[in-house]
């Protein structure tokens, strides 16, 4: 997730990944299974609870069971919206979503490392983004 309208260009807001394989050996991950037709999981960004859009919706829109509100997303809501816990949320700025299918043969930001595995790439990108854009980055994991 990123901002795209700043003088410095694209500004990352959140960096995440969805693995191809699930927790059971060799099975397709539930996060991407049926991605072409379902919005529930959609590569960890789905509209179901325990997924980014669903949990953000619970923090932004009224009427959700308080037990379903993940407090990380209250911070996201405050960062992204003029008002939250409202029927008519308004974004502070345009927010964009970008995704890429990653191959273990792809190079990350440091080509000296050679081909970069997805899990390692995620940590590299979060570290880079937290140094350059720590004032807006919504990632928490690996930063404390």
Please give a handful of descriptors for the protein shown.
144 residues; alpha+beta; 3-stranded antiparallel sheet; 3 helices; 3 strands
Q: Could you explain how this protein is built, in words?
A:
It is a single chain. The chain is of the alpha+beta class and 144 residues long. The chain has helices spanning 52-60, 71-80, 118-133, and strands at 2-6, 9-12, 95-96. It has a 3-stranded antiparallel sheet with strand order 2-1-3, with no helix packed on it. A hairpin with a 2-residue loop joins strand 1 (2-6) and strand 2. Helix 1 (52-60) packs across helix 2 (71-80). The chain is globular. The two termini are 21 Å apart. The model has no long low-confidence stretch (mean pLDDT 87).
Any chance you could write out the topology, listing elements then pairs?
Blueprint: E1 2-6, E2 9-12, H1 52-60, H2 71-80, E3 95-96, H3 118-133
Antiparallel strand pairs: 1-2, 1-3
Average predicted local confidence, pLDDT: 87
- Shape, principal axes of CA atoms: globular
Order of helical and strand elements: EEHHEH
Q: Roughly how much helix do the residues carry, as a percent range?
A: 10-25%
Treating each run of at least 4 consecutive H or I residues as one helix, how many helices? 3
The tally of beta strands, per DSSP, is 3
| Largest beta-sheet details | 3 strands, antiparallel
Strand order of the largest sheet: 2-1-3
Class from helix and strand fractions: alpha+beta
**Low-pLDDT runs:** none
CA-atom Rg in angstroms? 16 Å
Whole-Å distance between the termini? 21 Å
Question: Into which percentage range does the β-strand content fall?
Answer: 5-15%
């Amino acid at each position: 997730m990123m901002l795209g309208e700043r003088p410095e260009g694209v500004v990352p807001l959140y960096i995440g990944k969805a693995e191809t394989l699930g927790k059971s050996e060799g099975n397709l991950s539930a996060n991407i299974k049926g991605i072409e037709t379902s919005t529930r999981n959609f590569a960890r960004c789905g509209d179901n609870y325990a997924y980014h859009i669903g949990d953000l919706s619970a923090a932004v829109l009224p009427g959700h069971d308080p037990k379903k509100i993940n407090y990380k997303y209250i911070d996201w809501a405050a960062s992204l919206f003029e008002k939250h816990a409202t029927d008519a949320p308004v974004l502070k700025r345009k927010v964009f979503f970008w995704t890429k299918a990653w191959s273990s043969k792809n190079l990350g930001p440091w080509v000296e490392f050679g081909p970069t595995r997805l899990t390692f790439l995620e940590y590299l990108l979060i570290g880079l983004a937290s140094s350059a854009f720590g004032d807006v980055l919504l990632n928490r994991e690996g930063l404390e």
